[in-house]
Amino acid sequence: EDQVTQSPEALRLQEGESSSLNCSYTVSGLRGLFWYRQDPGKGPEFLFTLYSAGEEKEKERLKATLTKKESFLHITAPKPEDSATYLCAVPYSGGGADGLTFGKGTHLIIQP
Amino acid sequence: SQTIHQWPATLVQPVGSPLSLECTVEGTSNPNLYWYRQAAGRGLQLLFYSVGIGQISSEVPQNLSASRPQDRQFILSSKKLLLSDSGFYLCAWTLSGRGNFGPGTRLTVL
Predict the structure, then answer these.
(1) Among candidates A66, A16, A6, A3, which has minimal Cα distance to A38?
(2) A100:B103 CB<8 A
């Protein structure tokens, strides 16, 4: 059974304080790992797709990296507008066409 | 560009009442469509998916059902809601495995 575990569950940082969010996964044959941002009361917004160990993707203050067992979302010098819940997901291996298995997310708060 | 719509945005329903949530996609043909539920303290859970009109697969046993009457329309229904059906319901379509989500419907069952 696919499993996706995110840590920490919640993280409070001061503006400008860099940190990393973790996503560990257990799947039989990774077909991609996805990162999303979700604001309260809204649907998840796509950030990155990673396909192979060693791959990195960047967008503004965010950088996602991938190893064979986990992915990290590094946030550099965050601003209050980066506050959100960050979700990672892997393609579902239960036969569902392109469905995703999600972690529970990391709730990130950036204080001014 | 592709756009996904969901309605209603919020809904408060009594236990035992019926449910109908609608999702429509614009800007793409024959998309794979999905219903997810996000309950408090839990991750997004895949409920149903559809690869075409009239084709529905269920991932989780429950008192919910789904239908796809048109290529770009996906409906989530229930005949009798339970308290445990409360949550945030999200419709999505996929492109190269990547899920693209709608704005969601917040359902509260009282």
Answers:
(1) A6
(2) no
